[in-house]
Automatic annotation (TrEMBL):
<keyword id="KW-0862">Zinc</keyword>
<feature type="domain" description="RING-type">
    <location>
        <begin position="232"/>
        <end position="289"/>
    </location>
</feature>
<keyword id="KW-0479">Metal-binding</keyword>
<protein>
    <submittedName>
        <fullName>Uncharacterized protein LOC106464969 isoform X1</fullName>
    </submittedName>
</protein>
<feature type="domain" description="RWD">
    <location>
        <begin position="6"/>
        <end position="107"/>
    </location>
</feature>
<dbReference type="InterPro" id="IPR013083">
    <property type="entry name" value="Znf_RING/FYVE/PHD"/>
</dbReference>
<dbReference type="InterPro" id="IPR001841">
    <property type="entry name" value="Znf_RING"/>
</dbReference>
<dbReference type="Pfam" id="PF05773">
    <property type="entry name" value="RWD"/>
</dbReference>
<dbReference type="InterPro" id="IPR016135">
    <property type="entry name" value="UBQ-conjugating_enzyme/RWD"/>
</dbReference>
<keyword id="KW-0863">Zinc-finger</keyword>
<dbReference type="InterPro" id="IPR006575">
    <property type="entry name" value="RWD_dom"/>
</dbReference>
């Protein structure tokens, strides 16, 4: 038997036992086709041909895959050719297939190689960095904007894109509220990529899991770059200090930065005074985007806000009206006393007039106050 016939026999009898997830599809002198599969998305078919003076020359190899990127397969082809050159003069097929199999295991990020290439090309700028860690099937993403920085570890699971990506915070000098938002929202994006929406429209096509890396990294870069220079819609000054060391984590500090439902950020004090000032009709709207302001700390309905504001204003008015009231009370007293000093020094009729005047002014004051209260309540 020739060397090729022997080798083909060997492939038929041992390939599927020795190489995990392999299936021999064709095994004839003109072509050997073997499928290697790890998951639905990590699979390829090796198409192998013998050159004229085999085994003195390396095998002719081509890879096909519906899920792995063409660029990755071309690169793999080149390294496989080099690998075969190590075994010139010997049977090469099983050695080559073992090499391909371990390549898939050692490069779990092969499943998203195309996605990573476009992320590097289109999303990552000079100040940012994306490092691949094949050993842990993860990516370290560092995003920098001014003096602010965040580093996250994104783990790509074995069954990606059908399994949910994990996002862990490794480093950040943003306030806590922001880092929680970055990580929480990233996880939400990855969840939405693998789980169908709860309310589906009847005409929607059947749900298919979508790759989540690109949308997560695009979201992180966009948000991390936006916040450091974003201005408070109320006072028009930047919300986050230019030096991250000056960030306050105290939620009652006037400069504490709050993020409201629409995504815009405010100084705590600015937001508080804005929410407490009319108009309240239709709820308070964000001056930047016009969306209604919702926040866990201020669950105010427009009516409650209106009532609170009216109450506060009434108290202010009371304080402001305090001085005129005193003047009103003092006026008759001073008038009578002046009369006494200038004319009679002190007499009984003056004292009676004084008491009468004081009581009259008091009842007049009470009546006017009641009348004003009635108007307000109407
Ligand atoms: Zn402000
Ligand atoms: Zn807004």
């Amino acid at each position: 038997m020739s060397l090729i016939t022997n080798e083909l026999q060997d492939v038929k009898s041992h390939c599927e036992d020795q190489i995990e997830g392999s299936k021999v599809i064709t095994c004839v002198p003109s072509m050997v086709r073997v499928e290697i599969k790890r998951t639905k998305f990590k699979q390829l078919t090796a198409c192998i041909q013998f050159p004229d003076n085999y085994p003195e020359q390396p095998l002719i190899i081509e890879f096909k895959s519906k899920t792995l990127a063409a660029r990755l397969l071309d690169g793999l082809c080149k390294v496989c050719e080099k690998e075969c050159k190590k075994y010139l003069g010997k049977p090469q097929i099983l050695r080559l297939l073992k090499f391909v199999s371990s390549f898939i295991d050692e490069n779990p990020l092969c499943v998203c190689s195309e996605e990573i290439a476009s992320i590097k090309k289109e999303l990552i700028s000079e100040n940012d960095d994306l490092k691949l860690k094949q050993k842990t099937s993860s990516l370290y993403l560092q995003i920098t904007q001014e003096a602010y920085r965040i580093v996250v570890k994104i783990t790509v699971p074995h069954h990606y894109p059908e399994e949910q990506i994990r996002v862990e915070l490794k480093e950040s000098n943003f306030p806590d509220l922001f880092t929680k938002f970055f990580c929480g929202q990233s996880l939400e994006i990855s969840r939405q990529c693998i789980q169908p929406p709860l309310k589906r429209k009847p005409k929607d096509p059947p749900f298919e899991p979508k790759p989540a890396l690109w949308p997560i990294i695009r979201f992180l870069i966009k948000e991390v770059k936006r916040f450091p220079h974003e201005k408070c819609p109320v006072c028009k000054e930047r919300c986050l200090p230019s030096d991250p060391k000056e960030v306050t984590e105290d939620p009652n500090n006037p400069k504490f930065v709050e993020r409201v439902y629409c995504g815009h950020i405010y100084h705590y004090d600015c937001l508080l005074s804005y929410l407490k000032t009319p108009p309240f009709q239709g709820g308070k709207k964000c001056p930047n985007c016009g969306n209604r302001i919702y926040h866990d700390r201020w669950k105010l309905t427009p009516n409650m806000a209106e009532a609170r504001w009216a109450h506060q204003e009434a108290r202010h008015r009371e304080l402001e009206e305090y001085d005129p009231q005193i003047a009103m009370w003092m006026f008759p007293v001073l008038l009578v006393k002046w009369h006494c000093i200038s004319t009679c020094s002190s007499c009984f009729s003056c004292d009676v007039t004084l008491v009468l005047l004081v009581s009259l002014t008091y009842s007049l004051f009470v009546t006017v106050n009641k009348y004003l209260d009635n108007i307000k309540n109407c």
